[in-house]
Amino acid sequence: MSAVKTVKIAYRVLSREGWKPLFILILERLLGDFHSVSHVKTVDALDVVFNSPPAHLAMPVTVNEGPVHIAWIMSPPGETSGGHHNLFRFIDFAEKAGHTCTIYFYSNHVTKIDIAEIRKMMAKSNAFPHLQAEMFEYSRDDGVSSSVQAIFATGWETAYPAFLDKSLARRLYFVQDFEPYFYPVGSESVLAENTYKFGFEAITAGGWLAHKLSTEYGMKASHFDFGVEHNRYFRTNNNDRKEIFFYARPVTARRGFELGVMALEEFSKLRPDIEINMAGWDVSSRDLPFAFNNLGGVDISHLNEIYNRCAAGLVISMTNMSLLPLELMAAGAAPVVNDAPNNRMVADSPFIQYVAPTPGDLARALVRVVEDPSAVDKSREMSLSLSQTTWESSGAQFVVEFERTMRG
């Protein structure tokens, strides 16, 4: 691949996906199996001694009533970064509940954090809410504002500056996935896992994470349930559907791209008449043994139309469940998902086709959906089953758990 094309791809990934996927791309394309740059700054990793925390962390701030000033430490967002979309959604819920929020961006990359560009990107995207929060680059020397009463770590690398900050604020952890699983067993997986021993209280996306963190790491952990944006995902197609969808993320190992491709190869042999749509990443350069529509990184505003063309959606999640199964259901497409506690403990709907994580089982489950004579009726029922499943309800859960934590 030419240098010019590599730079163009890198720029596109950075602007749309954010720093973490770009980091993975660089490792894959340029550094091979060797790299020496971590998401966390070395000086921060060196200074954290979680078995002997600073004294002020043992006496966190309590706010008995009224609003709380919250600092959110996060990596810089990308346009299509789903984790950031959801994170900003909950910052919005906190603001609407009367709390003051300030955002601090933390990164170990040499490129300067451009807050004006981040604001411009967010303003152009309808995936981000409009916030009152001020935004700053996190400074180890300055720390968070002296008025901050709660600090949320939002990814494993941000737990390090959150731990080390000199503030008396209460430390919390907004956990959306089990991040040690993002890496092979090694340095980064251990650095990520260590953050669950920092003494923070977690509020997690779904019940599986809260269960795992409390039973395996002794963390205080509560959770909010997943929701659906019903103004964005809804059923429009009341006819038979002749297409399927695959959430294809080859750069994200936990999404099981290779397993999904094997399943789709078998499916294409069994039902060659059904169109296969792949979205989530540009896979046009992949030489796959079946025909497919390469949709790439689809803008969120176009997903409902795609989902409504599809009878089923293959979504593989090896860690915390993706948001996609509920979004597919809302649009009337049956999710086919690998059966595991990390998925069932988040959403155990009878409309989700939970199957063993083998290519053959996944392929046959897709065939069963597209050949089901009652598919149209089931499509309607699965969409209606989510009528009370909203992000507003999830936000209310989050606010209750946050305020309970802050009240001591």
From TrEMBL:
Q: Tell me one GO molecular function of this protein.
A: polysaccharide binding
Q: Which UniProt keywords apply?
A: Transferase
Locate the WsaF N-terminal domain: which residues?
Answer: 153-203
Q: Does the keyword Magnesium apply?
A: no
Report the residue ranges that make up the WsaF C-terminal domain in this protein.
242-366
Q: Does the keyword Transferase apply?
A: yes
Write down the Pfam families for this protein, in alphabetical order: WsaF_C, WsaF_N
* Name of the protein this chain belongs to: Glycosyltransferase involved in cell wall biosynthesis
